[in-house]
């Protein structure tokens, strides 16, 4: 892993004012897009490749740049995306349980900023262990570094990226604004037999499948087939369930249980036995002595955040402290699964800590959602930025420069994500199953807060998920497929199938496919948000 000759060793050449400004603007764009993608599609692929190419294109056009400045800039750009995901995957559940609920802007800002700050600190604490000692692959981080290293002199990659983005933006405008293209293909003949098969007409969904790859998208689609071709139609026809709604309750609880069980497996097998090794350097100060980030002041920040949660939100002090302890554990869980698989189920980590806090200290309502949101935001940020830190390790970027960049981009993302979420709820009026913004992860959280639809199914799924993880089988993605809408899963499967075919027929084109997919995601996400903003501004 050697640095290219046009790298920079001095901190001031890596962390520049123009890089931070570009990163801040990029964070606004990525955060806005990510919020829409998360609410609409129930999935949020990494923005890492997108922001790496975007940062490279802008800085090269400005001249006199280096690989490390590009790396630091795209770290700031991407940080807000997963912050938005953490919020989108949890908070909408409040309105799913009660459409009249009022959540103050101040409370949302404090919870989101608190989760962001905690995520940034814990990411810095565990960076050295997971990136340098364990050397987990963090596939998106490696891809981003290769993209920057390859950096087309003539800008070929940028042309492909922005070309696919522009075409997708036009397509989405025709589909969603002018209504000339259906959003979903849903055969009515199958519906009459309780077979809810369909395909979302969405470039974004196909791009998600392509980026995730055939293995995990295959498990995802298998979960969808189990739900929509077996559990619901067979279960209802054979009298196992009294109605389609009962069958849906069973499969939703099963899917949630699978994901929670996988999360518990990560905690028991990968985190607790290695806690001293992971966090020992933090306690001893060894990391700082080795030239890493000095975080001796971190405990003071933890206490401050606990009081912020208690004073400015509906959370009480004990749940606030328990949440911070939970974030300490789950950011390491997020690092493990993200580093190994490239998938970061942040809302599942939120659910795990929510269940733990409920078991130790009675909590419900908005407080429960805030617990899950703070954890999800922190875990989302940790997983995303560790990909950027992986790029930085390969390019030999100063971790301090990346940490500062991460903090700036994350804080910008926290503020923007709250604004965009409130815009979206006002524009669409409601979120959840059967709406234009299904937000399935937030529905899973609401199921935990409001009471599981089927407790027995959840327990079965939890046990199966734990067993699958111990057998190194991706039960997390199986659970995602079980409770996501079939139309989204089908479209994503098409993308995964394309990736598989390309890898066999023309393997040298896989990277180009990833760049095109990044453009598809950006085009649909940004256009969707612009349409939402126009809807809000034109409401009477």
In short:
The protein has 540 residues and is mainly alpha-helical. The protein has one domain. Helices cover 77% and strands 1% of the residues.
Fold and architecture overview:
The chain has 24 helices and 2 strands. The protein has one domain. With 540 residues, it is mostly helical. The protein has helices at 11-14, 17-41, 48-62, 67-88, 93-97, 105-133, 139-150, 156-177, 188-191, 203-212, 214-237, 244-271, 275-284, 286-289, 298-312, 317-341, 346-360, 365-395, 399-428, 440-450, 455-470, 475-483, 486-505, 510-537, and strands at 184-185, 199-200.
List the defining traits of the structure above:
two-stranded antiparallel sheet, 540 residues, single chain, mainly alpha, 2 strands
What are the SSEs and their pairings?
Blueprint: H1 11-14, H2 17-41, H3 48-62, H4 67-88, H5 93-97, H6 105-133, H7 139-150, H8 156-177, E1 184-185, H9 188-191, E2 199-200, H10 203-212, H11 214-237, H12 244-271, H13 275-284, H14 286-289, H15 298-312, H16 317-341, H17 346-360, H18 365-395, H19 399-428, H20 440-450, H21 455-470, H22 475-483, H23 486-505, H24 510-537
Antiparallel strand pairs: 1-2
Helix pairs in contact: 2-3, 2-4, 2-19, 2-24, 3-4, 3-7, 4-18, 4-19, 6-13, 6-15, 6-16, 6-18, 6-19, 7-18, 8-24, 10-23, 10-24, 11-12, 11-22, 11-23, 12-16, 12-17, 12-21, 12-22, 15-16, 16-17, 16-18, 17-18, 17-20, 18-19, 18-20, 19-24
Q: What is the mean predicted local confidence, pLDDT?
A: 84
Low-pLDDT runs of 5+ residues are 1-5
Number of domains: 1
Read across the widest sheet, the strand sequence of neighbours is: 1-2
Q: Count of DSSP E strands?
A: 2
Shape, per Cα inertia axes: globular
Strand content range: under 5%
**Proportion of helical residues:** over 70%
Number of helices: 24
Helix/strand order: HHHHHHHHEHEHHHHHHHHHHHHHHH
How is the main sheet built? 2 strands, antiparallel
**CA-CA gap between termini:** 58 Å
Measured on Cα atoms, how large is the radius of gyration? 22 Å
**Class by helix and strand content?**
mainly alpha
């Amino acid at each position: 892993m050697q640095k290219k000759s046009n790298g920079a060793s001095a901190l001031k050449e890596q962390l520049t004012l123009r890089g931070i400004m570009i990163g801040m603007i990029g964070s606004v764009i990525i955060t806005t897009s990510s919020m829409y993608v998360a609410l609409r599609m129930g999935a949020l692929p990494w923005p890492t490749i997108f922001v790496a190419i975007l940062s490279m294109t802008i800085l090269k056009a400005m001249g006199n740049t280096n690989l490390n400045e590009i790396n630091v800039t795209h770290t700031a750009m991407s940080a807000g995306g997963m912050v938005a995901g953490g919020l989108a995957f949890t908070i909408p559940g409040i309105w799913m349980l009660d459409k009249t609920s009022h959540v103050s802007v101040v409370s949302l800002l404090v919870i989101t900023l608190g989760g962001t700050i905690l995520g940034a600190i814990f990411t810095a604490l565990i960076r050295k262990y997971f990136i340098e000692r364990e050397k987990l692959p963090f596939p998106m981080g490696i891809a981003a570094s290769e993209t920057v290293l390859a950096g087309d002199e003539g800008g070929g990659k940028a042309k492909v990226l922005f070309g696919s983005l522009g075409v997708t933006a036009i397509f989405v405008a025709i589909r969603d604004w002018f209504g000339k293209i259906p959003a979903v293909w849903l055969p009515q003949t199958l519906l009459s037999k309780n077979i809810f098969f369909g395909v979302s007409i969405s470039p974004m969904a196909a791009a998600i499948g392509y980026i995730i790859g055939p293995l995990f998208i295959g498990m995802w689609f298998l979960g969808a087939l189990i739900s929509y071709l077996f559990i619901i139609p067979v279960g209802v026809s054979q009298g196992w369930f009294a109605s389609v709604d009962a069958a849906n309750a069973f499969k939703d609880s099963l899917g949630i249980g699978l994901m929670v069980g996988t999360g518990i497996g990560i905690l028991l097998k990968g985190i607790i036995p290695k806690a001293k090794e992971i966090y020992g350097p933090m306690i001893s100060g060894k990391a700082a002595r080795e030239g890493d980030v000095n975080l001796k002041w971190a405990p003071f920040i933890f206490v401050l955040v606990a009081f912020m949660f208690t004073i400015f939100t509906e959370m009480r002090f004990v749940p606030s402290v328990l949440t911070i302890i939970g974030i300490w554990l789950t950011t390491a869980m997020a690092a493990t699964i993200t580093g190994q698989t490239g998938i970061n189920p942040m809302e599942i980590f939120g659910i795990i800590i929510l269940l733990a806090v409920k078991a130790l200290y009675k909590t419900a309502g908005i407080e429960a959602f805030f617990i899950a949101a703070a954890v999800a935001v922190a875990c989302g940020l940790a997983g995303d930025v560790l990909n950027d830190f992986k790029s930085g390790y390969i390019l030999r970027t100063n971790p301090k420069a990346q940490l500062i960049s991460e903090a700036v981009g994350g804080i910008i993302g926290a503020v923007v994500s709250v604004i965009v979420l409130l815009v979206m709820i006002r524009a669409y009026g409601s979120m959840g199953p059967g709406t234009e913004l299904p937000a399935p992860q937030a529905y899973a959280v609401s199921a935990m807060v409001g009471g599981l639809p089927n407790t027995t199914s959840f327990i079965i799924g939890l046990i199966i998920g734990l067993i699958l993880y111990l057998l190194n089988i991706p039960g997390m993605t199986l659970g995602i497929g079980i409770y996501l809408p079939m139309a989204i899963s089908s479209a994503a499967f098409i993308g995964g199938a394309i990736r598989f075919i390309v890898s066999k027929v023309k393997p040298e084109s896989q990277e180009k496919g990833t760049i095109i997919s990044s453009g598809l995601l950006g085009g649909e996400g940004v256009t969707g948000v612009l349409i939402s903003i126009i809807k809000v501004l034109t409401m009477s």
